[in-house]
Amino acid sequence: MRERTVKIGSAGKIFALTGFKVGWTCAAPPLARVIARAHQFLTFTTPPNLQWAVAEGLATQDAWVQGARNRFQHGRDRLTAGLAGAGLTVLPSAATYFLSVDLAASGVALDDVRFCNRLIDAAGVVAIPISALYAEDPVTSIVRFCFVKDDATLDAAIERIIAAKARLIGA
After folding, report:
1. Mean pLDDT in consecutive groups of 10 residues from the start of the chain, 171 residues
2. Structure confidence at residue 111 (pLDDT)
3. Torsion over CA of 18, 80, 82 and 122, rounded to 10 degrees?
4. Predicted local confidence at residue 120, as pLDDT
5. Angstrom distance (rounded) from CA 4 to CA 30
6. Structure pTM?
7. 3-state secondary structure string, the chain?
8. What pLDDT does 169 receive?
9. How far apart, in whole angstroms, are the C-alpha atoms of residue 112 and residue 127?
């Protein structure tokens, strides 16, 4: 797969620094050349201080990155257990900040947008309808929840979802 794979990375994602618009790609040389040609027309400049900060972080913050990884895994596992306990079918999740729930497999008779709107009204919890991420032919039976939250926030969301379950499952 090396010849056809591009890995795109972002300091904003790795270090949880929204606004640090410093990224990189890793690819086989023929792909990297094409990406570099396209990139020159997309980005005017990246502030040198941000580039330096990212390089410093990548070189010196392995312990912080591992700690963040552990916190994210903990949040993922906690929310997975809570949503499953609420009777929702949680899809496998890796290398992301989100859990996806299969509404149809969970017995929910609503599409993703209606479910998310009802979730806000009934439980005060926000989820993202997957159909919002499609340009055409959207999947409408999957929603995603962000698990990068502290335990108290995740627990409160789970409790609210469980309390509102009857209003969320029905049509």
Report:
1. 92 82 91 92 82 92 92 96 96 92 95 96 96 96 96 97 84 49
2. 95
3. 60
4. 96
5. 9
6. 0.80
7. CHHHCEEEEEHHHHCCCCCCCCEEEEECHHHHHHHHHHHCCCCCCCCHHHHHHHHHHHHHCHHHHHHHHHHHHHHHHHHHHHHHHCCCEECCCCCCCEEEEECCCCCCCCCHHHHHHHHHHHHCCCCEEHHHHCCCCCCCCEEEEECCCCHHHHHHHHHHHHHCHHHHHCC
8. 75
9. 9
Q: Which two tokens stand for residue 113?
A: 């947008």
Look-up of token digits 């790795």: 14
Residues 59-80 as b or e (16 or more Cβ within 10 Å = b): eeeeeeeeeeeeebeebbebbb
Q: Are 56 and 134 in contact (CB under 8 A)?
A: no
